[in-house]
């Protein structure tokens, strides 16, 4: 199971808001720091649902009360799903509850003493990886939850398992910090064994290092039990060999992720619907947005006005980078917006087009890739079919040197610079200018075959 989190330095002097409208009031904070988790887990290890939904964390932090959990337990029991009840707080539609699998990206919130967190519960089953990528694109911090129970970790990690692909996609999506929770340490077959903990760790670290995580700076391991909440908030007496902080205190100890509020507005659209007007959802990547502000929707260049603004379902007058927003807009109809469109500053529009040059790393592909190859592009919240129209050069993975001649093909584990053309007009930026809008994934036949970054936007010929 995976989880991810995006964070942002808060506004000084503003108290943490009670996002769940609970009777209890939250203590005022001198600084509110926002995080966003996006969860995804290896397929078929369904019992980890109980953890990553982080219902145990939400319960421990007071964001889900006992009465609500009892209600979920009764409803789950009526459907012979009593062991899945903790997952129902984020699996809100009937299909997800019947199947016991996340399909769409769920959303929830919890607070600690110092920070505010948003959970984006993304699917982990291989059939719904495109939805998982959408959740990952909104996150900065990842939480990988693996099972210490014999056989379950190995199932998710072996070739074809989802742990490997999710780790790579998380890094590609821009995740900067990774927490690995070794779950089910209380299982009778494990019994808080240091040997089993180290075994899982030793198998996982080389792969995480290979996909780009620095084991010393980017990764933190900790044992836990998601079902009982052990080592989530308080230390575990049975696990004296672990001397680090429990999960929630560790989250509080992480440094803030600073984003510039002075840059142009960039808000990739995740979803849209009608509700007394046109409503859009997305994460603000750059700039600030205020009520009554005039903005432009790209690529169709509609000028819109912000009628109302909600940050994690709480109405506010303005928002800064990192916040997950819900905006009600004037000047555009719901059917004129698609996921992947970008809300921009009028004086600094994002780039749009169909053709661009990119550096691509071929991750997994049995045959060679030649010009004319088609794949599905995932870039920020946009999904579009693309074709590799030209291979420009190969890039040496160690030295970065570029070949002087154009290659006829590329194959697995090679790096190249290629020209790609999308089937339709898309919004994108160079990786150098806006990393979150310039990194992408290529998928084909249900597999991630390559990752890349946009180097140059190619103007369309008249």
From TrEMBL:
Entries under SUPFAM superfamilies matching the protein: EF-Tu/eEF-1alpha/eIF2-gamma C-terminal domain, P-loop containing nucleoside triphosphate hydrolases, Translation proteins
One Gene Ontology term, aspect cellular component: cytosol
CDD domains in the cross-refs: EF1_alpha (cd01883), eRF3_C_III (cd03704), eRF3_II (cd04089)
Domain Tr-type G positions: 56-261
Catalytic activity: GTP + H2O = GDP + phosphate + H(+)
Keywords: GTP-binding, Hydrolase, Nonsense-mediated mRNA decay, Nucleotide-binding, Protein biosynthesis
Single GO MF descriptor: translation release factor activity
GO BP annotations listed: nuclear-transcribed mRNA catabolic process, nonsense-mediated decay
Domain of life: Eukaryota
UniProt entry tagged with the keyword Protein biosynthesis: yes
Family: Belongs to the TRAFAC class translation factor GTPase superfamily. Classic translation factor GTPase family. EF-Tu/EF-1A subfamily.
Name by which UniProt lists this protein: G1 to S phase transition 1
Organism this protein belongs to: Oryzias sinensis
């Amino acid at each position: 199971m995976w989880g991810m989190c995006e964070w942002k330095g808060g506004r000084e002097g503003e108290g943490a808001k009670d996002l769940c409208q609970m009777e209890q009031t939250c203590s005022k904070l001198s600084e509110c720091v926002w995080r966003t988790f996006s969860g995804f887990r290896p397929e078929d290890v369904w019992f980890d649902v109980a953890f990553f939904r982080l219902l145990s964390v939400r319960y421990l932090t007071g964001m889900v009360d006992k009465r609500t959990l009892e209600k979920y337990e009764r409803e789950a029991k009526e459907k012979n799903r009593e062991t899945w009840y903790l997952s129902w707080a984020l699996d809100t539609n009937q299909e997800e509850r019947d199947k016991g699998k996340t399909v769409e990206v769920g959303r929830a919130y919890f607070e600690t003493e110092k920070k505010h967190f948003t959970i984006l519960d993304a699917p982990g089953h291989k059939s719904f990886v495109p939805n998982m990528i959408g959740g990952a694109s909104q996150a900065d911090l990842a939480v990988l939850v693996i099972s210490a129970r014999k056989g379950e970790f190995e199932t998710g990690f072996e070739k074809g398992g989802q742990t490997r692909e999710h780790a790579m996609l998380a890094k590609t999506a821009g995740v900067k910090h990774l927490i690995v929770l070794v779950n089910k340490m209380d299982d009778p077959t494990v019994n808080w064994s240091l040997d089993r903990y180290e075994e899982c760790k030793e198998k996982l670290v080389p792969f995480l290092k290979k996909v780009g995580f620095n084991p010393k700076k980017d990764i933190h391991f900790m044992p836990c039990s998601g079902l009982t909440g052990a080592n989530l908030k308080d230390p575990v007496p049975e696990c004296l060999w672990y001397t680090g902080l429990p999960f929630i205190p560790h989250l509080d100890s992480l440094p803030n992720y600073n984003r510039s509020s002075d840059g142009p507005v960039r808000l990739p659209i995740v979803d849209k619907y009608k509700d007394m007007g046109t409503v859009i959802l997305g994460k603000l990547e750059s700039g600030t947005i205020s009520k009554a502000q005039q903005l432009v929707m790209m690529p169709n260049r509609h000028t819109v006005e912000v009628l109302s603004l909600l940050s994690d379902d709480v109405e506010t007058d303005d928002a800064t980078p990192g916040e997950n927003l819900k905006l009600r807009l004037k000047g555009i109809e719901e059917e004129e917006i698609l996921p992947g469109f970008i809300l921009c500053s009028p004086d600094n529009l994002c780039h749009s087009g169909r053709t661009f040059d990119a550096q691509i790393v071929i991750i997994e592909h049995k045959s060679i890739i030649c010009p004319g190859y088609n794949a599905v592009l995932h870039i920020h919240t946009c999904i579009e079919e693309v074709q590799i129209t030209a291979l420009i050069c190969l890039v040496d993975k160690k030295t970065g040197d570029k070949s002087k001649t154009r290659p006829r093909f590329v194959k697995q584990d090679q790096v190249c610079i290629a020209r790609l053309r999308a089937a339709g007009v898309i919004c994108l930026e160079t990786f150098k200018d806006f990393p979150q809008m310039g990194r992408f994934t290529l998928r084909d036949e249900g597999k991630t075959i390559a990752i890349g970054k946009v180097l140059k936007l190619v103007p369309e010929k008249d």
